[in-house]
Amino acid sequence: MEKVSVWDLPDVPEGQLPSHIQLQRTRVHCNPDAPTHTENVQYSGAYSSVGVDNSLQLEQFRKNFRVEVIRLGKEDMEFDMIGVDPSLANAFRRILIAELPTMAIEKVLIANNTSVVQDEVLSHRLGLIPINADPRLFDYKSENDDPKENNTIVFKLHVRCERGGPRLTVKSDQLKWLPNGSEFSLETSAAKSTAKPKTYTTFHTSQETLHDFSKKPIAPCHPDIILSKLGPGQEIELEAHAVKGMGKTHAKWSPVATAWYRMLPEVVLLQQVEDERAEKLVKTCPVNVFDIEDVGKGKKRAIVARPRGCTLCRECIREDEFKQDVALRRVKDHFIFTIESTGALPPEVLFTEAVKILEDKCERVITELS
Amino acid sequence: MVAKENEQDVGIDKQFLAAPVKSAVDKFQLLPEFLKVRGLVKQHLDSFNYFVRTGMKNIVRANKEIRSTVDKNVYLRYKSVRIGEPSVVVNSVMDQLSPHRCRLSDITYAAPIYVDIEYVTESNGKKSTATKSDVIIGKMPIMLRSCCCLLYGKDEEELARLGECPLDPGGYFIVKGTEKVILIQEQLSKNRIIIDTDKKGCVQASVMSSTEARKSKTVIVMEKEKIYLSLNQFEKKVPIMAVMKAMGMESDQEVVQMLGRDPRYGALLLPSIEECASHHVYTQQEALEFLEGKVAKSRFYSASVEKEGRAMVILRDVFVANIPVRENNFRLKCMYVAVMLRRMMEAIINKDAMDDKDYVGNKRLELSGQLLSLLFEDLFKTLNEEAVKEVDAFLNKPSRSRFDFSTYITRGRITVGLERALSTGNWDVKRFRMNRKGMTQVVARLSFIGTLGMMTRIQPQFEKSRKVSGPRALQPSQWGMLCPCDTPEGEACGLVKNLALMTHVTTDQEEGPIISLCYCLGVEDLELLSGEELHAPNSYLIILNGLILGKHRRPKQFAQAMRKLRRAGKIGEFISIFVNEKQHCLYIASDGGRVCRPLVIADRGVSRIKEHHMKELKDGMRNFDSFLREGLIEYLDVNEENNALIALYEGEATIDTTHIEIEPFTILGVCAGLIPFPHHNQSPRNTYQCAMGKQAMGNIAYNQLCRMDTLIYLLVYPQRPLLTTRTIELVGYDKLGAGQNATVAVMSYSGYDIEDAIVMNKSSLDRGFGRCIVMKKLAAVHQKYANNTSDRIIRPQRDGRNAEKMQILDEDGLAAPGEIIRPQDVYIYKQSPIDTKNTISGTVPESFYKDSWQTYKGPEGETAVVDRVALSTDRNDNMSITFMIRHTRRPEVGDKFSSRHGQKGVCGTIVQQEDFPFSERGICPDLIMNPHGFPSRMTVGKMIELLGGKAGVSCGRFHYGSAFGEPSGHADKVEVISETLVKHGFSYTGKDFIYSGITGMPLQAYIFMGPIYYQKLKHMVLDKMHARGSGPKVMMTRQPTEGRSRNGGLRVGEMERDCLIAYGASMLIYERLMISSDPFEVQVCRKCGLLGYYNSKLKAAICSTCKDGEKISTLKLPYACKLLFQELQSMNIVPRLQLTEA
């Protein structure tokens, strides 16, 4: 930066930050060597010397805060979260990854497995299958709880490759939901023949009668996840018990493939870039952030057409040529949030759930404090 | 993001990848063809095949007739010998063997040696000759994939049916169920003159002679300007001139003439001549008498030798034994000695003429075929000798009934001898004065690469303790023959070497035709030359395998003609013709054990291989052999390389270029070939990786789940490296990988990443990263005993005291596959008879058996599972039951990981995914590596691997990083990789804008992030961690046991003790060394100072020496101290304790 005497600086109106400080406060500067001003200014009195109040105002927040949904699909969504602190955005991200519960297979009772895939490995694979069941309809099952219809989903897998036949691929759609619970009987209760044989679960009613599972039966989200391959004569017979859990215990309970955000890119042309240079600038960018605008008389000028597409490859500021002309920045309070759901819950529901969890957390803090 | 990105890339077809065509002719395709024809372990197979097809027949032919010494008419003649199919005799039925069956049931993979014989039988006193064919004289262990092996020429499907992995190279033996490989042995050349200096700095010329008949070492040494011969058979050194005279070279002038006209040589010989004269040795007779006095005594000589004179016999048979002496004509030998002397003197005058012992051209590699043939020859001769001895003994008996010679040769001697040598690795062949240990090693099945690496390993003959640097240093002549990277660290560093990818080791070739060819091409016979002519200038000596054939006046033309014949396939392709202009010699070599490699021939700098040749190769109209046949390619050995000017690339060829390299990356071996961009790394890093690649877990072989090895490490989800090399594809590492492509962020995180530790993402581990399976073998034998009793395996107790222990047993008394096995669980419920000696009659009572079940003794807290149970019959016809116990482990803190660049590190901490940094695209690394790993290690290759891997996942094409591959297109250039990255929106540097997962704010640096292939090494905390409070103690000293396996204590050693003394922590020392170790209370008699005892009946302490209990004190001692006193007393030393009041 050029050295300028303090006395030559323009006057700053009362109650406002000088423009360069304001820029540092609100933007991450993505310089060719390293990003600067990445941190957020938290302290309310950070700018009190220039008479600026940096405290968080609820009214202000309410006014500024916006959520704009860009894309909403069955399994993924992209939305802009504007006007929040990175720590808040991050909190949502962290909750989405680690603290939203889902159902996942936790216990596998293997009656027979003669396939090449080892029991533990098969169980591990089963565990990672996303299950299309709303976790909100189930309770957590603690260690001492009996597996009941309100905390356990039971699946059955029984595949057999006949001798003489071709090899089989066992896929996740062969997991059959057992609404009445386990069909494997506990060995100890074999004596009592009169009563219904005791099984590994104690379901009082069929899960089909609960909620609207009859309309939307529970099943793996994706039918084509390969579990194992069977050669002739091999067989797999097992029961898989899914329970509710959270991503922080094991990644299989994470409801998202991943969830992340990025700050809104801001690409600024500090100086006019014209004609050949403009064309060159447009060409340097692999993601076509820049475009060319005709300013009449055959003159051309580069403009920033699609700043949102900037992936920060820094190609434009790699060579010295445009280093002075282009500034790459990130807006600190504008987050482009992406949620990729595994399929158990739609992404928008996931986000609202995450908000609820954060609410709970806040409430807990408040009650602790009061 | 563990495997998600990578799984999609596997489907890319290789043809597309191999597409780019270079400006010069792309000769790479020759490599797979070469490996198809030659294979990675071809040297072993060739050597063994040669032995089976030729060597063995020669041995039998050379010893084909054995005759009784008693009755000369009783004889046995071998007419032919051959090896049958691998088989085993079970209940006197011949059963075909497959290698996998041998592995599983601990038998030897061997085939019968059949001979056809003609022999004398005698029945009722009438002798008659009979013939018999297919007599089995023994069994030969068969090398897998050799021409005798069941697997020879089988395709993939047939191999699969036999339970064999198609990628397994073979080249090893199966002896008693264990796979054994005979390591390649490195030796100095036999029958060659080597000029060097001895310990005192004297110049010497030595020859290790080796012929079928005799092996000897001849040394001619210059000491105090006089030249002596040193030979084991002479007591001390003898003057060389006396030796010359004894060989009939009576005229000094002729000797000087033979050295050459130059007066310098004559001057150097003068002192020797004078010395000889001082001993009054002038004639042959005098010389022989003189030498007779020097012959080492105490040797047994037969009568015929005594008559002839021992000196004469020694000179004829022992002294440079490789030069034949016909009808006592010593002229050839004299000439040979003259050449030796001349070379010595050249070396004295000009130090450059000294030979380098470490020069690869002076080395020979001894392979399994040669070693086995030595062993077989010895055993075969011994068999015949013993047969003769037995026959003699039988014939000497006055009353004898029927006699059949053929029954004496079907003893198990050969079978046992071969099997023992292979399984112990001790080659103890008295006949050839050979006593070597550690020749075989068990094939390491830890990783596929480790197995392959073992087949190319070369073991030195030097002892490892020698602290010389010469043999350990990298030799320039190793180029292309031996891998410059792959050598162990530590004591064997530089001595143990590995073959490069394209190296071939020759086998013996017949000399006869070559000799006659040489004479046809104008070589003047040595015997027709006068001494003067021997070193006449402008003509060259022609030397074939160390034997001087004669002289040639136009050596260049002669060499040209020979090479032309070789290229035309008229003489063997491995014969080397080497013109040594310094020595005025032309060396022809056809012996076995030379290393050589194929090169493209160039005429005046123009490659003989043209585009259309490669096209024909691609279309399958050609193969490697046709290239060889048509003289486009030839093999050069190390010596002949000196006559060639080899261009690295076609474009670099000049008018003088004679050869062009096929591919530069073939200078590396198999292990070093896995490293991407090794030419960008600091050299030792590649060496480290070569050692570490052998410890990496992954897939072992396609039949890994059918194997019953004692220990198997497998990776659950092994991957193919994103950044491959050509070698990887050639050896099949892409099919049997040992590692996973991890997304690595190079940054500092959490402080648990110091000293090369890595931080791992918990979610990655949850999703299967680094997950491995450890399988261990447990075995039990259902023993049969001499008294016809046997063990029995019975139904488990379902209730009662032991029921809990026997939960995992099936109804048959064996653990069921799939059951979780815990420590103390019984895995086989076996009972053994109480009495195994005396015969039992009638029914045996129940009480006759006692429990002898076997319990699992694994570490507590490990949930192991019974994987497989196999029943087989072992060699003693007992049923053996093998259990494979499996344990799946996920990585934990302290497990060791490594990239392919010698960068190992342990897992420092495991962090939740939400705390991990993430990129703008939502990519979260699998592990974080500290950047401090780079500056001092200088592994630039790793950085390029990261870039290439990142570009690979972005554009969906596997990138290449073969060694020195950039010019020929086998390695992607960094510029191109960067362009690809930019095209996909990444920074050209590979550095990403990263957000912190903890604060949510961007990091203040761009982070270098991308996929790197990581290996999980076999060292895991679970196998190593150990601590103990109290535990078992050793009986004798009552001190805690030693070692983790015995749950031993942690020793406060000398240095630790010194620290505590220096610190003054005396109570701590007291506690550590006594209270916590072996405290013991003793009664000491103050009168005699000896130890007494406490009589608990009398409730009093008594001194047994003084016989009273008056002055007794109680004292605390370490038990070891008390033991020392007693041991001292037992050797008549009395230690007395003098007590003072404290």
From TrEMBL, chain A:
Name one molecular function that GO assigns to this entry.
DNA-directed RNA polymerase activity
Kindly list the places in or outside the cell where this protein is found, as annotated in its UniProt entry: Nucleus
Keyword line: DNA-directed RNA polymerase, Nucleus, Transcription
Q: Which GO terms describe its biological process?
A: DNA-templated transcription
According to its UniProt record, where is this protein mainly located? Answer: nucleus
Q: What GO cellular component entries does it have?
A: RNA polymerase I complex; RNA polymerase III complex
Q: Which Gene3D superfamilies match?
A: DNA-directed RNA polymerase, insert domain (2.170.120.12), RNA polymerase, RBP11-like subunit (3.30.1360.10)
Q: Which CDD domains match?
A: RNAP_I_II_AC40
User: In terms of domain of life, where is this protein from?
Assistant: Eukaryota
Q: Quote the Pfam families the UniProt record gives.
A: RNA_pol_A_bac, RNA_pol_L
UniProt cross-references to InterPro entries, sorted A to Z: DNA-dir_RNA_pol_30-40kDasu_CS, DNA-dir_RNA_pol_insert, DNA-dir_RNA_pol_RpoA/D/Rpb3, RBP11-like, RNAP_Rpo3/Rpb3/RPAC1, RNAPI/III_AC40, RNApol_insert_sf, Rpo3/RPB3_RNA_Pol_subunit
Domain DNA-directed RNA polymerase RpoA/D/Rpb3-type: residue ranges: 76-368
**Family (UniProt):** Belongs to the archaeal Rpo3/eukaryotic RPB3 RNA polymerase subunit family.
What is the name attached to this protein's record? DNA-directed RNA polymerases I and III subunit RPAC1
Q: What is the lineage of its organism?
A: Eukaryota, Viridiplantae, Streptophyta, Embryophyta, Tracheophyta
TrEMBL record, chain B:
Q: Which residues form the DNA-directed RNA polymerase subunit 2 hybrid-binding domain?
A: 671-1046
Name this polypeptide is given: DNA-directed RNA polymerase subunit beta
Species this chain originates from? Heracleum sosnowskyi
Which UniProt keywords are given for this protein, alphabetically ordered? DNA-directed RNA polymerase, Metal-binding, Nucleotidyltransferase, Nucleus, Transcription, Transferase, Zinc, Zinc-finger
Q: Which domain of life is it from?
A: Eukaryota
Predominant location: nucleus
Concerning InterPro entries, the annotation shows: DNA-dir_RNA_pol_su2, DNA-dir_RNAP_su2_dom, DNA-dir_RNAP_su2_hyb_sf, RNA_pol_bsu_CS, RNA_pol_bsu_protrusion, RNA_pol_Rpb2_2, RNA_pol_Rpb2_2_sf, RNA_pol_Rpb2_3
Compartments where found? Nucleus
- What Pfam families does this protein's entry cite? RNA_pol_Rpb2_1 (PF04563), RNA_pol_Rpb2_2 (PF04561), RNA_pol_Rpb2_3 (PF04565), RNA_pol_Rpb2_4 (PF04566), RNA_pol_Rpb2_5 (PF04567), RNA_pol_Rpb2_6 (PF00562), RNA_pol_Rpb2_7 (PF04560)
Q: Which residues form the RNA polymerase Rpb2 domain?
A: 189-366, 441-505, 542-602, 624-653, 1048-1138
- Family indicated by similarity: Belongs to the RNA polymerase beta chain family.
Query: Mind telling me which CDD domains this protein's record contains?
Result: RNA_pol_B_RPB2 (cd00653)
Gene Ontology CC, one term: nucleus
Assembly mode: Component of the RNA polymerase III (Pol III) complex consisting of 17 subunits.
The UniProt function text for this chain reads: DNA-dependent RNA polymerase catalyzes the transcription of DNA into RNA using the four ribonucleoside triphosphates as substrates.
Broad enzyme group? transferase
BP GO annotations: megagametogenesis; transcription by RNA polymerase III
Q: Which reaction does it catalyse?
A: RNA(n) + a ribonucleoside 5'-triphosphate = RNA(n+1) + diphosphate
> What EC number(s) does this enzyme carry?
2.7.7.6
Record domain RNA polymerase beta subunit protrusion: where? 39-407
Instruction: Drop me one GO molecular function for this one.
Output: DNA binding
